[in-house]
Write a structure and sequence with these properties.
single chain; 361 residues; alpha/beta; eight-stranded mixed beta sheet; 35% helix; globular; binds N~2~-sulfamoyl-L-arginine; binds zinc ion; signal; carboxypeptidase; protease; metallocarboxypeptidase activity
Length: 361
């Protein structure tokens, strides 16, 4: 079973309850925190910090950041993030490797970055399930069961009709309708290729970098902590993606080719090792397709902390839950190929960021 014992997808309230539970289970090890900004609908966004003596004053320990659910429909991305938190908490004190890691580093887990979008997606997804069981159901909402496949946040954007702007009724499977794509709204290469300028588009970048409270939250978290490594989870395609999101010959805002990251060798080395654990393909992000304004393209280029996107699962945004379990643990049809071990490698690397510069010379 998963570290938490869950056997079905969490809703937003389940995430919040579980973060509370983790903190009250081990108060010296886990501290719940709210990010700086509430969502557009006024919801708080929470995370947990996990570390030996977590309440000790800042002591220079490096920080590893694990995130999920920038994209509303990608439910496993939040599940794997919070299960990693459970895993660390349950194994601290008994598992030597995890105990040592939590003495050397602090781990931040923010499982649901896009709280508004996720709530619409997961609630609607479960509504659809119920109606299907009910024999097909009735009514017009069923004709457009798009909220389960909502991608973006809940920003009201110009140029859309009020109906299309209604967050809870707005997203086709292509992710159209209300909202800004939070994985195009960061400041890394913002304004470049692979992000849309049109509000109705699934990859709408927003009117300016960091225009959204959700991306401001992550920027401010990273800017105020010593984040030496991060994973931002998405679904799907079984990929470990490393910066950059655009090919080296792409001309950047300064009129010069953006090139490869200075740490390419070390970024690749860790990406490849993680991919050996989860069985994914390790590649440059741009080999999937061009993107700009993504989480780790900003964080890596702004701070030097290593950042990766995991695209969890072979072929579905939110598959039946047993697959999510196997993909975390490396059990069942995913025997020996779980994200748990890949996450631990990322944490180990974040604990020892010096190794990066050594490897890349
Ligand atoms: O397009 C995206 O944002 C990601 N794929 S998803 O299906 N989860 O939407 C891929 C982003 C890849 N690029 C970078 N991480 N830079
Ligand atoms: Zn995604």
């Amino acid at each position: 079973p998963l570290p938490s014992g869950r056997d079905s997808y969490r809703r937003l309230s389940d995430y919040n309850d579980d973060l509370d539970r983790l903190a009250s289970l081990r108060p010296g090890l886990v501290k719940k925190f709210a990010l700086n900004h509430r969502s557009l609908e006024g919801k708080p966004v929470y995370g947990v910090e996990i570390a030996h003596d977590v309440t000790a004053a800042e002591d220079g320990r490096p920080v590893f950041l694990m995130m999920g659910l920038h994209h509303a429909r990608e439910w496993p991305s939040g599940e794997h993030a919070i299960e990693f938190a459970y895993d660390l908490v349950e194994n601290y004190g008994t598992d030597e490797r995890i105990t040592a890691l939590l003495k050397k580093a602090r781990v931040l887990v923010v499982p649901v970055v896009n709280v508004d979008g996720f709530e619409k997606s997961v609630n609607d997804g479960q509504l659809i399930d119920l109606r299907a069981i009910d024999g097909g159901g009735t009514g017009s909402i069923l004709a457009t069961p798009g909220n389960a496949y909502k991608r973006k946040n809940c920003r009201i954007v110009d140029g859309l009709t009020p109906l299309a702007n209604e967050c809870a009724l707005a997203s086709s499977p292509g992710g159209f309708g209300a909202g800004i794509d939070l994985n195009r709204n960061y400041g890394g290469f913002w304004g470049g290729p692979g992000a849309a300028a049109e509000p109705a588009d699934a990859t709408y970048r927003g009117p300016a970098p960091f225009s959204e409270p959700e991306t401001q939250n992550i920027r401010e978290l990273i800017s105020t902590r010593q984040v030496t490594g991060l994973i931002t989870n998405h679904t799907f395609s079984n990929l470990v993606l490393r910066p950059n999101g655009v090919a080296p010959d792409t001309v950047g805002p300064d009129g010069l080719p953006v090139g490869n990251p200075p740490d390419e060798a070390a970024l690749k080395e860790l990406g490849d090792r993680m991919a050996q654990q989860n069985g994914y393909t390790s590649q440059h992000s741009w080999e999937l397709y061009d993107t700009t304004g993504t989480t780790e393209d900003w964080s890596y280029n702004a701070t030097g902390g290593f950042g990766y996107t995991f695209e969890i699962g072979p072929d579905e945004f939110h598959p039946p839950f047993p697959e999510v379990v196997d993909e975390y643990l490396g059990s069942g049809q995913y025997a020996g190929k779980g994200n748990r071990e890949a996450f631990l490698l990322a944490l180990e690397s974040a604990v020892d960021p010096e190794s990066h510069s050594v490897i890349s010379g």
